[in-house]
Write a structure and sequence with these properties.
Blueprint lengths: L7 H24 L2 H62 L5 H4 L11 H11 L13 H9 L2 H8 L8 H18 L9 H32 L1 H9 L13
Keywords: Membrane, Transmembrane, Transmembrane helix
């Protein structure tokens, strides 16, 4: 058998064409009237390009929607893993050193009653928030140890091609990884010059601001798609001083 006839597409095409030929032959033998048969064939052939166009557009759109949905699911699985392993703990630690947190704390107590409009309103209110950190209160060696222990995990996330679809989360990962490298490169933190302290403060505040935004988006995703995961996320809210995983 020639090579080009071995593909299933080619065999399927030949089979369908042969089936059409057989049907027309049977129609002619049973009903006669070759002129009517020829007219029907040409009518069918005339509509064929339109039929192919419509089917192609519809199927292509359906496949695109399905592919996007699958990518979104995989992406949010990765984001959920990040917050379980790194994000929630880091967000809790950094927010504890935010002197202005009382201004926005209540806005970040997510509940079952929140709607997409609520999430959107909170994002708007956070647009001008400064995300300051009192760096003198930050235990740099402890923060460095926390991030170093998760360095391999962060590196694997950065290598995940799925994340290329989510620019803002990729920016967060890069910021966290950059902060990890900055802290790792310093042998000790005592006696650092003021200029270096301000540099590290900028890196920490960048991570903090991106973390809050991605956490809020992830909470909205869970609220809309996974109520049981959203329930645990609410009970682990890093901004809620009364949060407890125990269901009461």
């Amino acid at each position: 058998m020639p090579q080009f006839l071995r593909s299933w597409e080619m065999r399927l095409g030949i089979t369908l064409i042969g089936l059409s030929f057989v049907i027309y032959v049977i129609k002619y033998l049973l009903l006669g009237d070759p002129l009517n048969t020829y007219q029907y064939i040409f009518n069918a052939l005339g509509f064929l390009p339109i039929s192919v166009l419509l089917v192609t557009l519809i199927i292509n759109e359906l496949l695109s929607v399905r592919a996007k949905r699958e990518k979104l699911e995989k992406l949010n699985m990765v984001i959920g893993t990040f917050f379980s392993e790194v994000g929630t703990g880091l967000l809790t630690y950094l927010s504890n050193h935010d002197p202005d947190l009382p201004e926005i704390r209540q806005d970040l107590i997510v509940t079952d009653a929140w709607t997409p409009g609520t999430f959107s309103g909170v994002r708007d209110r956070l647009q001008n928030y400064r995300y300051d950190i009192v760096v003198d209160e930050v235990d740099m060696p402890d923060l460095c140890r926390f991030l170093k222990e998760r360095r391999g995990f962060l590196l694997r996330l950065l290598e995940n091609p799925v994340l290329l679809e989510h620019e803002s989360f990729t920016d967060l990962l890069r910021a966290v990884f950059h902060l990890t490298e900055e802290l790792e490169r310093r042998e000790e933190f005592a006696g650092l010059p003021e200029s270096d302290i301000w540099h590290l403060t900028g890196d920490i505040e960048r991570v903090y601001g991106l973390l809050v935004k991605e956490w809020l988006s992830y909470m909205e995703y869970l609220k809309q798609n996974y109520p049981y995961l959203f329930s645990l996320a609410m009970r682990s809210n890093p901004f809620d001083e009364t949060a407890s995983p125990v269901v009461r």
